[in-house]
Amino acid sequence: MRFTKMQGCGNDYVYVNCFEESVSSPGQLARAVSDRHFGIGSDGLVLILPSETADCKMRMFNPDGSESEMCGNAIRCVAKYVYDRDIIHKPQIAVETLAGTKIISVNTDENDIARTLTVDMGEPITAAADIPVIANASPVMELLLSAYGRDFHATCVSMGNPHAVIFIDEDVSTFDVERFGKVFEQDEHFPHKANIEFVNVLSPEHLKMRVWERGTGETLACGTGTCATVAAACLNGISPRKPVTVDLLGGQLIIEWRETDGHIYMTGPAEFTFDGEYHHG
């Protein structure tokens, strides 16, 4: 099986071009290729497939074999892949996902290579039942999460997948993300589990975030999580409805929740790492 390794802000996936390749058991394959010792090593597996309703289709599988609805960093890489390899070579590319069809604008350099990509992530979902989160209020902005004798308050948002955003005062660089993320991911309030973001407010237009992704663990970046974080910051009156820079372990993303159409737009890099062949049984 031929594959391509790509990353966006350090969020790395194994990509398979299913216009040419066939994958019969993607969950099982995701577990194998994601292993950083016995496999290729990645945050998961992404299949790039033909679509009947869009330019192409993306399916994303976590290292534990579960399928996720969307990944903001991965979808930028999908758009770069199909653009740079002339599968779909146009300035705006429609990608079908389990969270709906997303439109990606390709920002190229002088050699017509996709360098950064802007994804229309759609409207953030704040209704508790649709996130889903078990709570009495919508939007959910003060959800109490407790672990190890400490209480936190989360703002819950879905960007096609559920997120709980926690603003903290202590330096997120040294915060024990694994200890609390592992517990909160599986909290009883989240029937489908949740991605957990821990955030520092550096200024209204500059946030710093670390993320614990359900089914994966801590990653260097999470596109949907970054969008959810900025949405949560806007809901709480922390950030304005204009571009906000978010620092992640793997780089920076620029997120804007536009008032004109209510959609969130994410701009960030996507890069090839290498191509290879994987021999699997």
Keywords:
single chain, 281 residues, alpha+beta, Diaminopimelate Epimerase, Chain A, domain 1, 2 domains, 18-stranded mixed sheet, 4 helices, 42% strand, globular
Question: SSE layout and pairings?
Answer:
Blueprint: E1 2-8, E2 11-17, H1 26-34, E3 45-49, E4 56-61, E5 67-68, H2 72-84, E6 92-97, E7 100-108, E8 114-120, E9 140-147, E10 150-158, E11 162-167, H3 177-185, E12 195-203, E13 206-213, E14 217-219, H4 223-235, E15 244-248, E16 251-257, E17 264-269, E18 271-277
Parallel strand pairs: 2-3, 4-6, 11-12, 13-15
Antiparallel strand pairs: 1-2, 1-18, 3-4, 4-5, 6-7, 7-8, 8-17, 9-10, 10-11, 12-13, 13-14, 15-16, 16-17
Note down, in words, how this protein is organized.
The chain is an alpha+beta fold and 281 residues long. It has four helices and 18 strands. The chain has an 18-stranded mixed sheet that branches. The longest helix is centred in the N-terminal third of the chain and has 13 residues, at 72-84. The radius of gyration is 18 Å and the shape is globular. The relative contact order is 0.17. The mean pLDDT is 97.
Number of helices: 4
Assigned CATH superfamily of the largest domain: Diaminopimelate Epimerase, Chain A, domain 1
- The H-and-E topology, N to C, reads as EEHEEEHEEEEEEHEEEHEEEE
* % residues in beta strands: 35-45%
Supply the CATH class of the largest domain: Alpha Beta
The helix fraction, in percent, is 10-25%
Shape from CA axes? Answer: globular
Structural class: alpha+beta
What would you say the CATH architecture of the largest domain is?
A: Roll
Kindly provide the radius of gyration, computed on alpha-carbon positions and rounded to a whole number of angstroms: 18 Å
Distance between the termini: 11 Å
Q: How is the CATH topology of the largest domain named? A: Diaminopimelate Epimerase, Chain A, domain 1
Number of domains: 2
Reported for the largest beta sheet, the result is: 18 strands, mixed
State mean pLDDT (0 to 100 scale).
97
